[in-house]
Amino acid sequence: PHLLFPGEKPQPLPAAPTSQDELKRIAAHRAVDLVESGMVLGLGTGSTAVHALDRIGDLLRCGVLHDIVGIPTSKKTEAHALSIGIPLSDLDRHPSVDLSIDGADEVDPHLNLVKGRGGSLLREKMIEGASKRFVVIVDDSKMVDRLGCSGNSVPVEIIPFCWGYTLGQLKKLFAGECGFDARLRMTGDEKKEPFLTDNFNYIIDLYFENGITRDLNEVSDEILRLTGVVEHGMFLGLASSVIIAGEDGVTVKNK
Ligand code: 5RP
After folding, report:
1. Residue nearest to atom 5 of ligand 1 (CA)
2. In terms of C-beta density within 10 A (0-12 exposed, 13-18 middle, 19 or more buried), how is residue 94 classed?
3. Alpha-carbon distance 163 to 111, whole Å?
4. How remote is the CA of residue 137 from the centroid of ligand 1, in Å?
5. Which of 28, 131, 153, 173 is most exposed by smallest CB count within 10 Å?
6. Cα(108)–Cα(234) distance, rounded to whole angstroms?
7. pTM, whole model, 2 decimals?
């Protein structure tokens, strides 16, 4: 089933080649087909999720969808959702979320994810973890054989207090890993200020030359056991489905 505006015709997939942003839009619109009036929705963060937000906003405006409540996973998403008329709430008022839709930085063959390049991993994990269904939307460049092997980082949110100590503890944890590196995420024109999350925390980016070769749940537990760590960007077993848009079409993988 496709949610369409009154009079809107279903769009055939465009002839190749398709831009990466167009693929993100295609995946996002496919996910929004799962939205029903009356739902509580987890609203993701990033350039893919924004296509889902815009589509939901358009469908609300023309009355195809109604009585939607959105729970934003970041301040940026909150501002955007408000600007396009999506009514908002939070987990305190709506602790059970019907459906969350969000992008990812990496997806492995078991639908484990790396998220948080945009820095919103903590709120994303809280809201997506509280969802009956969590649908991930990606273009096919995000598919990897093993988490951490795309050259992008696995982010870890930490408290700012004595961040150098926590960085050292994380480095110690992965000391045996070939080519491992861990760096405090910086921002600003000259990259001289630490990046601050919406929760006023810092991010340490972990880089694995060959991806994470050890058991992911063990690695997750070891990171979370460090006292200065708040959360990490590995989303293990949380995704219900992944919608992957590529030049050859859309593939849906279910848990
Ligand atoms: C933000 C995220 C994003 O979902 C992830 O970085 C993917 O972003 P994009 O859709 O822009 O590629 O986890 O914290």
Report:
1. 104
2. middle
3. 31
4. 10
5. 173
6. 11
7. 0.94
